[in-house]
Structures are given as C-alpha cells and as structure tokens.
Amino acid sequence: MVVLRAGLCPGLTEDMIQLLRANGIRTVVDFVSSDLEDVARKCSLSYKALVAVRRVLLAQFSAFPANGADLYEELKSSTAILPTGSPSLDQLLDSGLYTGEVTELMGAPGSGKTQVCLGIAASVSLGLKQHVLFLDSTGGFTASRLHQMLQARTEDEEEQAIPGRLRLCFVLQLEALQRIQVVRVFNIYELLSALQELRDRLSQQVVSSVGPLKVVLLDSVSAVIYPLLGGRQSEGLALMMQLSRELKTLAREFSLAVVVTNQVTRDSSSGPLKPALGRSWSFVPSTRVLLESKEATWDKATTQRAATLAKSPRQPTGIQVELDIG
Amino acid sequence: MQREVGTLPLAPALRARLAAAGFQTAQELLDTGPCGLSKEIGISREEALEALQVVRQECHGDAARTAGGSGATRKCTALELLEEEQTQGFIITFCSALDNILGGGVQLTKITEICGAPGVGKTQLCMQLAVDVQIPECFGGVAGEAVFIDTEGSFMVDRVVDIAAACVQHCHLIAEAQQEEDLRKALETFSLENILSHIYYFRCRDYTELLAQVYLLPEFLAEHSKVRLVVIDGIAFPFRHDFEDLSLRTRLLNGLAQQLIIIANDHRSAVVLTNQMTTRIGQSQSTLVPALGESWGHAATVRLIFHWDNSQRLATLYKSPSQKESTIAYHITSHGFRDVQPPAVTHSTEGPELNPRKRPRTEEEKQ
C-alpha cells in the first residue's frame, strides 16, 4: 500500500496528487484499480496522462511471472550446498546447508545448539574460505572454543615434525577467525537494524568489509522474541513476522544460508517437548533439526547428541543421527 | 533498500495508524514532514515530531554503520574477540577443582547460574565470589567491586567477615612466601574494612522491586565503574510464589535475562544467579530439575548444578559454551568455599549428623 507521492513517476505532479486525493485515491492500489475514464472526468485530468502514469506504476510495482524452467536453471547456478563440519549432520541435511533457505536447530538447554553453530562457522570459514556472520543474542559465543575447533581441524592430519607446518596452521587459523564477524544484538530492534545494515552493505557490494558472505547464523531467535509474545501485546507476532521476512529475503536475494537456533518448551510439566515460538514461526524455516542429549538425567556427562530431522523439503522426517560435539 | 516502518521502535498504536495510512518505508515518513504526518494520521504535532526524531536517529545510525563507523553496535571479528577473551580475567572461587571445570573461574561478561537444593551452598559461593572479585590483580584477581541483590534475606554479614578475613590471610601468606614489593603494597588496600565497603547490598522483597532494581542497575554501574560482579541471590524466590499467570512470568523472566546479558556485556562484569530446584514427576520416577521452567534454562550461559551424594557435596557443570560437562566435589569450611580435603584430615571432623541435608556444624577452632 504505497502512498502516491510527487516524483514517484515522471507524470505524477503535486497538483495531480491533490486532485486525486480529493476524490479518494490515495495509494497506488487505489489508482491502478480505479476506472481511469471516470477519474479523468471527476478530476478534470487528461486521460492520456493518467494511462501513462498507470503504465509506469504497474511496471514499477507489480511482480512478473517466471516459468519453472528458468527458475530451475537459476537455482542450479546460484545455490550452493555448504558442509556443516559434521558428516552425520550433513547426511541428515541431504549433504549440507542449502543457500537460499532458512534452517533451524532446536533443543533444550545444553543440547549443543551453540556448539553446532560454532562448528558450522569454523567449517565454512576454514574449509571454504567464505565469510560468516554470527549474530549473538545470548552471549554464548566464545572465541576460545571456536579457536579450539579450528585447531582440531587444521592439526589433525599434520605431523608436527615438519618445520613451518605448525606456523602454517596458525596462519590458517588466524585467517579463518578474521573471516568470522560477530555482532551482539540483545533485542529485536537491534537485530532488525543489524539485518538492515547487512542488506545495505551487500546490495552496495562493499567488498572489503563483508567479502563473499555465505552463512548468517542467528543464536538464538527465541531470546529476542520471547519477551514480546503473549499477554495483551499484539505487536510481538508482527515483529516476529517482520524478522522472518527479513531473514528469508536475505537468504533468497543474496544466496545465503541462514541458520537460526530456537528453544523448546513443554505444554505442561510432563508433556512432550515442542519447539518454541509457536505455530506461526513453524512455517518460517524450511528445515528443522531437533538436538537432544542421549542421557535422561544430568548426572552423567557425555558429548554425544542425537539429531532428529523434524521438517525437511527433501528428506523424510524422523531420521536420526548421532553427533559428537566434543 | 529502505527501512520498513514495521521495524522501527515506535509505539504500537502509532505503528498501526501508520500502516493503515499506507506508509511503508522510513523514507516516506521523513519526506512527509511533521505537519503532513500529523494531518495524515491524526496525531498532534509534538507526537509527530517525536516519532520523526526516532526515525531519523535509526536511519542515521544505519547510514553511519554502513559507512564504516562503529556506532552503537557491538561488532567485531572473531579474532578480536579471541584476543579480548585471552586478556580477560576470571573470578576465582578458592576451590581449584571448580575453577578447573569452569575453565579458570567465573567468567566476566557471561551469566552463570547456580542451581541446587536448599542448604547445599549456593549463597556461600555467592558470598565467596563477592569477596574474591576484590582480590588485587597481582594476586590473580580482577580488582573489582561487587553488587549483591538479595531476595531471600540469606545474606549474613558475619559470615562474609569470616570469609574475607580468611581471604586476606591467604594473600598475606602468599606475599610473605614470595617477598615481592608490589604484593605487599597491594595488601595495604586489601583489608577487611575495604572489602566490606565495596560490596553494595540491595534487598528486594518481591518481583516488582527486583525488576525495578535490574532496570536501574545500568545507571548505578555507570557511576560505580569498578563493579565486576553482580549477584542475584534467589532469582526463583520472588517468581515462584504468588504468581498466577505463567505466561506473564515467562515473559518477565526472558526480558530480565536479556537485560542482564546487556549489563554483563556493556559493563564487562560477571552476573551470577542462584536458582532453586523443583521435582518433575515422570512416567516411572521423579527427578530434581532446576526451577522456573524450560525457557529459563536458556537464559544463563553457564549452568552449575550443586547436589548431594550421601554426605558429599558435588558440583556438576551442566551447560557451558566452552567447557565439557563434568562433576567435582567441594567442601564448605569456616573459611568459606574450598576444595575437598585429603581423607586423612576429614575423618577426624566427622561427628554425628542429625540432618544430612543441612551443612554439618564443624567445630574447628577459629585462628
């Protein structure tokens, strides 16, 4: 519903707008859906000018259909599949994270969501040499743990006896760390600002600061949305949908893989676990993975986790694999 | 690309009116101007001016950030964060096993939650940390002050005096053993009166007072910039009794968690919370789980669960972004929170235990 403004298109002047407004035509939708002969008579404007304006407005504001074959070609050339750094998780996700889509990881506290996100950041930054953006809303990002993961990946096959090899590993780790940018956002408006800023930078193609960005990780989305939902506040759902629209547009327009983490809640104290943020959010991610601890109580410590596929456009749901987040 | 009106921090009623009037992007609002705006949506000129002020601030903030200015966002690369973390200190707990599993001690800029049954030692650890945060840097501390927010009334000043005296004596012994000049100089300011005067104590009786206190905390911390520890002893207590609306409770707790993480981050201080335990009745058995529900579990970055194993106190690291899960044993003596003593010493102090859930009364001589 865009309001008609002078300068929106070449033929639209201020006087024209005043005349149209006097007759109840305020937005672009009103204009293109009204009968132009009628309008020309009532506002005493030239019919040809109105038709020209309508043509320009339609060209500017309407969507154009594309056929399936073109879409498929475009998808083949622009989609990439990114490895998550854990072969069993890749197998669960049908060989990795797809760009252009939003993937969600959900789990109880301590189930390993932040660890998997750090693993993805490490694998993409080190293995593919692409830039990563990590939006941290819980304060759980620990650079020393990321460094530990990078060390494990670069030094596992190398023999330390070869001179210079250790230094090369160190340089690789430093470069990988520099490609990961961390932004701390602690409420919804800061998050939306950060996403807007990212979009501005990507569309202006400022190469130096962003580089070839491929992954955006958001840990966690429920921490910023939870304080807004429920009660008599009605804008919580609207903001949540705004956020989902930003994330999906970013993923689709710039071919990014967006990964978000979510909490789980229970209906009652003994009910089954279900993802937080409700039904409206469940339509946003195209793939959902549930992470669980293998043990039922917290007495026994383990680094094994079970990942179950809860929603996927490509694989049957219910597949379960084991992950090691150690 | 323009900022959408829906993403700007305006009042919800105003936002609804703007959407009904057909405004979509921030640029349209700025172009219309305050008079046009007040006429279009039917608000007073002052309100229109205020709204445009907010919009202008947001848009300029975005532009400044895009151009490379730092603005107010907390943005950096992982490498810079790593360097920052390596120079950051930890608050030691005087129990080396606990410090080890935490990776050095209680971390600054993170929220640590301590859950446990009654009498297991949560308040003792909080009081120990309030003293330990003040240890001077040459002894390995962070030389900061502490804020103690008490909701249960379990803060005992004479116990803090005992803990502080033991800590000062420990530092004296180290200084004597090492014979260094700066250690002795630092000890001149590290005395009992000094320690007690740098613990700022607040008493909150219900959840409204607690929320108000946390809301006012950033201003207090701006004045007292040396504070490095904020303890909230008993975050569960005001929220557990007298609360009918559970969804309101979840919302308030989540908002509180976000405010605390902002405080921890901006003022580079550690936030320590204590939580109670509740019973979850399952299919065949019942287990003790931390209180306040599932969603509260995500609020803390690091979670420690204290529990009993016959008469031994154990601490389990349940959730941490950088350390593995593990369990250690600890001991509470008249000097405070300590490691478990080797078995040759403990068996002489074991007496008849009347109530295994309460701290045993050890009869050690005060030095």
From TrEMBL, chain A:
Localization per record = Nucleus
Highest taxon of the source?
Answer: Eukaryota
InterPro entries (UniProt xref): AAA+_ATPase, DNA_recomb/repair_RecA-like, HRR_RAD51_Paralog, P-loop_NTPase, Rad51_C, Rad51D_C, RAD51D_N, RecA_ATP-bd
The UniProt record lists the keyword DNA repair = yes
Mitochondrion as UniProt keyword: no
Q: What is its main location?
A: nucleus
One BP annotation, GO: telomere maintenance
Record GO terms (molecular function): ATP binding; ATP-dependent DNA damage sensor activity; four-way junction DNA binding; single-stranded DNA binding
Domain RecA family profile spans what residues?
78-264
One Gene Ontology cellular component = microtubule organizing center
Query: What PROSITE patterns has UniProt attached to this entry?
Result: RECA_2
Q: Which SMART domains match?
A: AAA
Q: Which UniProt keywords apply?
A: ATP-binding, DNA damage, DNA recombination, DNA repair, DNA-binding, Nucleotide-binding, Nucleus
The record, for PANTHER family, names: DNA REPAIR PROTEIN RAD51 HOMOLOG 4
Its quaternary structure? Part of the BCDX2 complex consisting of RAD51B, RAD51C, RAD51D and XRCC2; the complex has a ring-like structure arranged into a flat disc around a central channel. In the absence of DNA, the BCDX2 subcomplex XRCC2:RAD51D formed a multimeric ring structure; in the presence of single-stranded DNA it formed a filamentous structure with the ssDNA. Interacts with SWSAP1 and ZSWIM7; involved in homologous recombination repair. Interacts with BLM; required for stimulation of BLM activity by the BCDX2 subcomplex XRCC2:RAD51D.
Membership in a protein family: Belongs to the RecA family. RAD51 subfamily.
What is the protein's known function? Involved in the homologous recombination repair (HRR) pathway of double-stranded DNA breaks arising during DNA replication or induced by DNA-damaging agents. Bind to single-stranded DNA (ssDNA) and has DNA-dependent ATPase activity. Part of the RAD51 paralog protein complex BCDX2 which acts in the BRCA1-BRCA2-dependent HR pathway. Upon DNA damage, BCDX2 acts downstream of BRCA2 recruitment and upstream of RAD51 recruitment. BCDX2 binds predominantly to the intersection of the four duplex arms of the Holliday junction and to junction of replication forks.
The name this protein carries in UniProt is DNA repair protein RAD51 homolog 4
Q: What organism, scientifically named, is this protein from?
A: Sylvia atricapilla
Q: What is the lineage of its organism?
A: Eukaryota, Metazoa, Chordata, Craniata, Vertebrata
TrEMBL record, chain B:
This protein's UniProt keywords = ATP-binding, Cytoplasm, DNA damage, DNA recombination, DNA repair, DNA-binding, Mitochondrion, Nucleotide-binding, Nucleus, Phosphoprotein
State the name under which the record lists this protein.
DNA repair protein RAD51 homolog 3
Task: Please list the residue ranges annotated as the RecA family profile domain.
Answer: 87-277
Its GO CC terms? Answer: mitochondrion; perinuclear region of cytoplasm; Rad51B-Rad51C-Rad51D-XRCC2 complex; Rad51C-XRCC3 complex; replication fork
Q: Which residues cross the membrane?
A: none
Its GO biological process annotations read: meiotic DNA recombinase assembly; reciprocal meiotic recombination
**InterPro entries annotated for this entry?**
DNA_recomb/repair_RecA-like, HR_Repair_Mediator, P-loop_NTPase, Rad51_C, RecA_ATP-bd
Gene that this sequence comes from: Rad51c
Region Disordered: start-end pairs: 339-367
CDD domains associated with the record: Rad51C (cd19492)
Q: Where in the cell is it found?
A: Cytoplasm, Perinuclear region; Mitochondrion; Nucleus
Determine the domain of life of the protein's source: Eukaryota
Homology family: Belongs to the RecA family. RAD51 subfamily.
GO terms, molecular function: ATP binding; ATP-dependent DNA damage sensor activity; crossover junction DNA endonuclease activity; four-way junction DNA binding
The UniProt entry lists the main location of this chain as cytoplasm
